[in-house]
Design goal:
The protein is α/β, with parallel strands linked by helices. The chain contains twelve helices and 22 strands. It has helices spanning about 15-20, 30-45, 60-70, 80-90, 105-115, 125-135, 170-180, 205-220, 245-260, 270-275, 305-310, 400-404; strands at about 1-5, 5-10, 15, 25-30, 50-55, 75, 95-100, 120, 140-145, 190-195, 225-230, 265, 280-290, 295-300, 315-320, 325, 330-335, 345, 350, 360, 380-385, 390-395. Strands 4, 13, 14, 15, 17, 18, 20, 21 and 22 form a nine-stranded mixed sheet that branches. The chain has an eight-stranded parallel β-barrel with strand order 5-6-7-8-9-10-11-12, surrounded by four helices. Helix 3 (about 60-70) links the parallel strand 5 and strand 6 (about 75). About 45% of the residues are buried.
């Protein structure tokens, strides 16, 4: 995104034209940025050519996933619905891994029938269920075990997944018990050790610590793992925070790890692929002035973008048409939903605004639409993909009559 003649543009399309043609709120994605992110991710780890499985939970638009598939990525899924979505998008089942702590019998059965690459199991009970189902189908299934490495990712507690108090994976003791249990299994191939320590990680050091734990566990187990799934969690820069993950140091740590382990690396990135690809355009409905601050009431709400209400996340907010009139008064951008948490950001000063002006919230491509809901009976917004000057509607705006 950039301003051309004071008007915000996404690639070659003016944001105000998108709002005029399709209404607001509206999610907009840049194909150019998507392609750049995928290519940059591949380049960062090209020395060992990992299998990159896009974390579908971060963005579930089937048309966007089709573009991601064309760029060579597989999929990481956490439900039967996400698996069906990945297959509908044309992703090769042999490039799909199924993660998640609570897979049902129906989900396991479906995954086995689709012959996906791996089911990453997270408990001994789940493995027993996989074995029961695979035996009934007279099939041999390839699985991974998710290890909980008790590694603090130094991120938000709500998105930490690798500490011993988190529900994910199994501890070291259970991990070795499962390996012993599976030695005599006729229906399960243990092919992968899987880890994932959290999300929005901007420091390479937790990853280095995680790799040391994985290295020790593998040596102690004496088991040959064909795959090591290192999960995802790579963070992006939100708002004015320009801190970035040092991919070079993470790459060096993995190459050092691979000297002793002849395994294929799997990654499960989501946010780092689509986070800064998406923007949300919204219109100002009302401006409610008070002595201390102005409430900027917009037509987007927490049902459209849940991250600020859920995590206290902050998204950079910009005017669609820039002027030089700065108002040195606190602006609180809020939605119309009947909840006090329905607010997006509070800024000490902002451009002078008037009702019906347009604003845009940045970096909403990950966990924006995928976390959206119909709370307060609000229809979900439209989604468009922009390629240069071409606009593709990749999801129509939901209609109230269909919702009701």
């Amino acid at each position: 995104m950039k301003y051309i003649n004071q008007k915000l543009t996404i690639e070659k399309v003016k944001a105000q034209n998108l709002a005029k043609k399709f209404g607001t709120p509206i999610y907009c994605y840049s194909y150019k940025k998507l392609r750049e992110n995928v290519n940059a991710f591949k380049k960062n780890f090209k020395s060992f050519s990992p299998l990159i499985c896009f974390a579908v939970k971060s963005n579930t638009n089937v048309n966007l996933i089709k573009e991601i598939r064309k760029l060579g990525l597989g999929a990481d899924v956490v439900s039967k619905g996400e698996l069906m979505l990945a297959i509908k998008a044309g992703i090769n089942p042999k490039k799909i891994v199924f993660s998640g702590v609570g897979k049902t019998s129906s989900e396991i059965s479906y995954a086995i029938d689709k012959k996906i690459l791996l089911i990453n199991a997270e408990s001994k009970s789940e493995i027993i269920e996989i074995e029961r189902i695979s035996k009934s189908k007279k099939k041999k299934v390839d699985i991974g075990i998710r290890l909980n490495p008790n590694t603090d990712a130094k991120t938000l507690s709500q998105i930490s997944t690798g500490k011993k108090e988190n529900k994910f994976g199994v501890d070291e003791k259970i991990f070795f018990e499962i390996i012993d249990y599976l030695k005599d299994s006729k229906n399960i191939n243990l092919k992968c050790l899987s880890v994932h320590i959290g999300s929005q990680i901007l420091d390479h050091k937790p990853y280095e610590k995680m790799l040391k734990v994985v290295d020790r566990i593998i040596k102690k187990s004496s088991h040959k793992f064909e795959f090591i799934d290192l999960g995802g969690g790579m963070g992006i820069s939100y708002g004015n925070n320009n801190k970035k993950l040092n991919y070079k140091k993470y790459n060096i740590a993995i190459k050092k790890f691979l000297i002793n382990h002849n395994s294929k690396i799997i990654f499960e990135p989501g946010r780092s692929i689509v986070g800064n690809v998406g923007s949300l355009i919204s219109k100002i409905i009302y401006i409610k002035e008070s002595n201390k601050k102005n409430f900027i009431i917009i037509d987007a709400a927490m049902n459209d973008l849940m991250r600020p209400a859920l995590y206290g996340a902050n998204h950079k907010t910009l005017p669609v048409i820039k002027t030089q009139q700065i108002l040195k008064k606190t602006h609180e951008f809020v939605g119309p939903i009947c909840e006090s948490t329905d607010k997006f950001t509070t800024l000490k000063q902002f451009q002078k605004l008037k009702e019906k002006d347009l604003i845009i919230m940045c970096d909403v491509g990950a966990y924006g639409m995928s976390l959206s809901s119909n709370y307060n009976m609000r229809p979900r917004p439209a989604e468009v993909l922009i390629k240069g000057s071409k606009i593709n509607v990749i999801k129509k705006r939901q209609k109230l009559k269909d919702l009701i």
